[in-house]
């Protein structure tokens, strides 16, 4: 009976709701050797219809440049200032007087983050963190700004332990007294929990237990979905699982009505040799899918339909950041305002307006099994109704005469024939989406706007489940075995 009651409590909807529509914002870091001036930054933000930004300080020049733009701004009290602010209400009032009051009439400051990942980066100041929040909030009350500006603090998701299944999650017990005091403050001030969520890091640290598709929001077959054994909720991506883990961690401390805003999330577009999944294609896929996931208000399995507004990390690549190559390559743009990659955002309609040209291609994975590739190529040129005559000897797309090159042309042709619908660039796992145009001299791919006469007249059908490899067994059968076996291993890893 006790177990049944516990499960019922887990399944009850939490009293969480969004007080505004879901939004996508961006973080603006400044560790660039050629940092654009604030006016140039705001021009880029406006051109991309970005309406929410988060600053890592309260830079007066940037706040001045944002004046009159209507862009909603979250500013930050740097960690090194926390100790002074937490010791004195007067110091907090002075910070608000210097950094907020001169700008508030023309710049739309809507939130203050008091510190950034304090518990994990400067744990020696953890004990005074909530005092600093309270003093800043008191200063806002004195200035009659408490209803306009929320006060919170950003956390790394690493403070959540045992995060899968989400229903078992709890905050690191070391920080439990701080979290209880913080959650009480957030609840009493109608604020929200700020959380940094990085599926890329979770994927890397899992050592293969988390599939790449699960981290990238790619469509999953039912057997690949992760299931919370307590709630029976199905998770199709890491992002939702981490967000729900935070909700359950709050529930564990008896807080059920504090919403979450994800203050950082993204994927690096370049990495060291030991980071093979830090690529342009994966960064494009993650951020494109993240934006669509947030803006369509899907919510999470625990809170369907509840917005999880998110700030993408980040606006610019920061070449001066210390550490690995990936640390320098999280940006959507370079310092000249040129997109690092072209986001796939058709019909998003509200953010990153100049990056919606839909220039995407379906290409063969270079490391895919050649027999699987050949089987998929055979299907595309047969039941898939791709006109593969352009790949015959002497024709425009014959060279290079490799199964990877020929499969890429056939896959891309089918993908665009099917209007780039979800699931049409998979071919039993041997194909992937790319933003790099694979066209070459004389061979123009459909996604680039040209044509080599790619399709045979007739109605296309779904990818064949009966294509066979040269060793005489069904491609579907072999892939199903791999998926089921992998799902079993994955489930065991999570439990």
From TrEMBL:
Q: Which family does it belong to?
A: Belongs to the glycosyl hydrolase 17 family.
Quote the protein name from its UniProt record: glucan endo-1,3-beta-D-glucosidase
Q: Which reaction does it catalyse?
A: Hydrolysis of (1->3)-beta-D-glucosidic linkages in (1->3)-beta-D-glucans
User: How is this protein positioned relative to the membrane?
Assistant: Lipid-anchor; GPI-anchor
GO process annotations (BP): carbohydrate metabolic process; defense response
Residue span(s) of domain X8:
360-445
Gene Ontology terms for molecular function: glucan endo-1,3-beta-D-glucosidase activity
What Gene3D superfamilies does the record tag this protein with? Answer: 1.20.58.1040, Glycosidases
Q: Report the leader peptide range.
A: 1-18
Q: Which PANTHER family match?
A: GLUCAN ENDO-1,3-BETA-GLUCOSIDASE BG1-RELATED-RELATED
Q: Which GO terms describe its cellular component?
A: plasma membrane; plasmodesma; side of membrane
Q: What single Pfam family name could you report for this chain, choosing any that match?
A: Glyco_hydro_17
The entry's keywords: Cell membrane, Disulfide bond, Glycoprotein, Glycosidase, GPI-anchor, Hydrolase, Lipoprotein, Membrane, Plant defense, Signal
Report the subcellular localization. Answer: Cell membrane
Top-level EC class: hydrolase
E.C. number, please? 3.2.1.39
Per the UniProt record, the source organism is Lactuca sativa
